[in-house]
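FAQ

Q: What does a record look like?
A: Structure on top, sequence underneath. For example:
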């Protein structure tokens, strides 16, 4: 009988991945649907995906599933068929990563979570069964162009800053749980206006659309598959992209360029720039926008202090102290949307 958890040492797993000769396809997916017995669902899924040599991280909750995985290229269709045959996952949309070396994961982890997207919602009457209507890229362009339509960006500030849809409003908070009540408050005088919500891959705006409906909004839409799917479809269908700039993603590129527009500015000198970096000082790691000239002048740091003062090492851990705790920074691990 195969195990439901991996028991092989991490170093050995990494080594095995490095020795693989077949390229891997990386993709992400999510779906909201009622999972009555998450533990049972998880165990069955683990066995099935383990046999297909899938690596990655999947979260399972009563409200649904969210995952980012890789699979040997020759197994991709088998993997799609397996997911498609899993009750609840029929017709699941797989977002295939374009520029990915497939080396992000070397083990399969499927974890149970309270929620697939933390929302802070405690209202027992809230249901995800009533969600906004999906819009594809073409429908989005049509509805967004109509007077009176409100387009709402449900991502974080640093994402909005380098790229967003024309005329989209920002919900200025760092966390999704704070954005939900804030969006309701910001739009309270527009209960019957068409409201289109969007995010990177669709998982946040889909939940947000259900929350808005729950709060009495009547005309709520959300962008199917998020900016990722929109950009793919706009290209495929040859329709103009209403999204300007870069789509921020948590990988080495720190963003995928959608259009040539540079809508952000260097945080140090103010010239047009949309390149995110982490402060080179190990005690800081602040995520900020820096132009090439400033990168040279500040040696990749966010400030003169960070440039001139080496990171202090903690006596207990031997690792650099992280200061500026209140400031936003990029977590080094891959982020789930
Ligand atoms: Zn600059
Ligand atoms: Zn710094």
């Amino acid at each position: 009988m195969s195990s439901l958890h991996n028991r092989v040492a991490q170093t050995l797993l990494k080594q095995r991945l490095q020795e693989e000769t077949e390229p891997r396809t990386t993709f992400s997916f999510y779906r909201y649907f009622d999972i009555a017995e998450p533990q049972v669902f998880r165990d069955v899924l683990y066995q099935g995906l383990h046999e297909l040599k899938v690596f990655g991280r999947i979260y399972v909750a009563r409200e649904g599933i969210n995952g980012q995985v890789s699979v040997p290229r020759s197994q991709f269709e088998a993997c799609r068929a397996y997911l498609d045959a899993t009750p609840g996952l029929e017709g699941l949309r797989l977002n295939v990563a374009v520029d990915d070396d497939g080396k992000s994961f070397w083990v399969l982890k499927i974890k149970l979570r309270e929620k697939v997207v933390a929302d802070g919602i405690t209202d027992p009457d809230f249901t995800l069964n009533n969600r906004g209507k999906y819009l594809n890229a073409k429908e989005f362009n049509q509805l967004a162009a109509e007077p009176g339509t409100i387009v709402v960006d449900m991502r974080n500030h640093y994402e909005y800053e380098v790229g967003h849809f024309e005329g989209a409003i920002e919900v200025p908070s760092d966390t999704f749980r704070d954005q939900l009540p804030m969006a309701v408050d910001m739009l309270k005088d527009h209960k019957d206006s068409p409201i289109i919500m969007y995010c990177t891959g669709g998982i946040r705006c889909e939940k947000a659309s259900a929350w808005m409906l729950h709060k009495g909004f009547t005309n709520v839409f959300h962008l199917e598959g998020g900016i990722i799917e929109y950009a793919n479809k706009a290209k495929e269908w040859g329709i103009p992209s209403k999204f300007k700039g870069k789509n921020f993603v948590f990988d080495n590129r720190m963003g995928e360029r959608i259009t040539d527009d540079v809508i952000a500015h260097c945080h140090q000198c103010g010239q047009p720039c949309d390149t995110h970096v982490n402060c080179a000082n190990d005690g800081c790691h602040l995520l900020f926008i820096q132009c090439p000239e400033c990168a040279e002048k500040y040696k990749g740091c966010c400030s003169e202090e960070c440039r001139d003062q080496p990171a202090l090492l903690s006596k207990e851990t031997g690792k650099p102290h992280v200061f500026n705790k209140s400031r936003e920074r990029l977590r080094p691990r891959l982020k789930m949307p």
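Q: Is there anything notable about this one?
A: The first strand starts at residue 24 and ends at 32.
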